[in-house]
Write a structure and sequence with these properties.
Order of helices and strands: HEEHEEEEHEEEEEEEHHEEEHHHHE
CATH superfamily of the largest domain: SET domain
Structural class: alpha+beta
Strand content: 5-15%
Radius of gyration: 29 Å
Distance between the termini: 82 Å
Shape: elongated
Bound molecules: S-adenosylmethionine
CATH class of the largest domain: Mainly Beta
Largest sheet: 4 strands, mixed
CATH topology of the largest domain: Beta-clip-like
Number of domains: 2
Number of helices: 9
Length: about 500
């Protein structure tokens, strides 16, 4: 049997997202965007080229509504107008995708297809994949509540690897009312060059994956630029062959020095942008033309490829797009309540618009200074705990109230400190126009907010209980003289 066929990744090939938890949206007529293009046979770009209003807003034209009719060029996702690509086996990074034709800057390369699942399901799966020991991650964030999981089903887009200096990028497009993720060329890519984009990988814990992109400015590890990673202590697992530096040849992203040929050498010498394989002799030098015969193959539709039992074994990290990120997950560290973070490729953000400080994270920093989580509401009153305690006869009751007040004050200052600690991360996200912050940051924030709320509730209920149910001091206070119990201050 052909050894390469044996290694065929087990997944179901699709070129349309598969919606697992809901139906594909049906575009309403009033939501259809109609451009103003007029087809001119002498100008091919006139039929929804770069100047098309829909193209400019990353929206595909709707068939039957576009003034250019069947010559409309702005239906690339719908018509699967992908660039020609080829799958090949990398050294150390699993499978990858190479350009099988010259690709132009800005060209749509391929859609990142997979199963569209809820964020909750993504977390569940991420945890399951982790448990199964899957090495590669394929879950990316689609929007605030959904992710795309290309683990079991996907397009060839699932094989595109990460590079710190990539030749591609991800972009979101509105296609008939649904957001879809495409991979686009950042610049001209020659035939034979490996395709790669920046996963914007967000690391939340767990294994650290050595980045083997080989770019000059490689950050070293997937997610190394993310805050969680930077704060963590570096731990290397020596026995992990896959990530052992000595054993892995270096790979340079195609962007560093675009080449049309791939070469493999038997020495540690790098040739062009790609790396050597130590197990080959000099006779084994391969160049791109041969690569296609030797190690590259085209993935065929499921019905033509014999699939073994589809027991997908996993993934540890995940990838994503432009304004999306791949995420690592750590079921213990980031989700102390036993929730695994879905690999979010961040992306993005997987859309958790936690409210931090006074405004949502996506609001600009010019917003007013943080006020310790307190809403500036003129009618809001604060309970004067000391005054309330002073009304009571029982020492025990007084102490109970004062203790609660102390806990509440601690929780409030804890929240204030946390804000100062995480402010750089919040600001970073704002700068990047992210609409959410990393889950680890948000989790900490939520925990601190909950502590404060609980402490406030405990204090108020303790005051109410004691004022209502225990004896007041015999000696009337000033307030009592006025015949009112004044517990609230302005
Ligand atoms: C979406 S998959 C890409 C396809 C994958 N290479 C495969 O064989 O299926 C993402 C995974 O590929 C690996 N990977 C991608 N880029 C890498 C890089 N620059 N360095 C190391 N591993 C990488 C990581 O294991 C990552 O979780």
């Amino acid at each position: 049997m052909d050894p390469h066929v044996e290694e065929l990744p087990q997944y179901i090939h699709i070129n349309q997202n598969d919606f697992l938890t809901r139906r594909h949206k049906k575009q309403k007529e009033e939501d259809i965007a109609i451009c103003e293009c007029k087809h001119n046979a002498n100008d091919p770009d006139s039929a929804c080229g770069d100047g098309c209003l829909n193209v400019l807003t990353s929206t595909e034209c709707t068939p039957g509504y576009c003034p250019c009719g069947i010559v409309c060029k702005n239906q690339k996702f719908q018509k699967c107008e992908y660039a020609k690509t080829k799958l090949f086996k990398t050294e150390g990074r699993g499978w990858g995708l190479v350009a099988d034709e010259n690709i132009k800057a800005g060209q749509f390369v391929i859609e990142y297809c997979g199963e569209v699942i809820s964020w909750k399901e993504a977390k569940r799966r991420s945890q399951a994949y982790e448990t199964q020991g899957l090495k590669d991650a394929f879950i990316i964030c689609l929007n605030a509540s959904e992710s795309i999981d290309a683990t079991r089903k996907g397009s060839l887009g699932r094989f595109i690897n990460h590079s710190c200096q990539p030749n591609c990028e991800t972009r979101k497009w509105n296609v008939l009312g649904e957001i879809r993720v495409g991979i686009f060329a950042k610049h001209d890519i020659p035939i034979g060059a490996e395709l790669a984009y920046d996963y914007n990988f967000e690391w939340f814990g767990g294994a650290k994956v050595r980045c083997l992109c080989g770019a000059l400015k490689c950050s070293g590890f997937l997610g190394a630029k993310s805050r969680g990673f930077q704060e963590d202590t570096y731990l290397w697992e020596d026995d992990d062959d896959r990530y052992s530096v000595e054993k892995i040849p270096v790979y340079d992203s195609a962007e560093d020095e675009p080449v049309s040929k791939l070469r493999y050498l038997n020495s540690e010498t790098y040739v062009n942008n790609f790396v050597g394989r130590t197990e080959h002799s000099m006779d084994d030098i391969l160049i791109a033309e041969n690569l296609s015969e030797a190690t590259a193959f085209n993935v065929q539709p499921l019905d033509s490829v014999q699939m073994m039992d589809l027991d997908v074994k996993t993934i540890r990290t995940e990838v994503v797009s432009n304004d999306m990120k791949l995420y690592t997950h750590d079921t213990e560290q980031d989700f102390p309540q036993k929730n695994a973070i879905v690999s979010r490729i961040r992306s993005t953000t997987a859309g958790r618009n936690y409210q931090i400080g006074r405004g949502s994270i996506s609001t600009k920093r010019s917003s007013k200074a943080y006020n310790g989580g307190r809403l500036k509401n003129p009618i809001q009153k604060k309970v004067d705990a000391k005054f309330a305690a002073g009304l009571l006869a029982s020492k025990e009751a007084q102490e109970e109230i004062l203790k609660c007040e102390e806990i509440k004050n601690d929780a409030t200052s804890g929240l204030d400190c946390l804000y100062n600690e995480i402010r750089p991360a919040i600001e970073e996200h704002e700068r990047d126009s992210q609409d959410s912050v990393s889950t680890s940051v948000a989790e900490k924030w939520i925990e601190a907010c909950c502590l404060k709320l609980k402490a406030e509730f405990d204090l108020y209920s303790t005051i109410v209980k004691n004022v209502a149910c225990t004896a007041h001091k015999a000696k009337p206070t000033e307030v009592d003289n006025d015949n009112e119990i004044k517990l609230l201050t302005g």
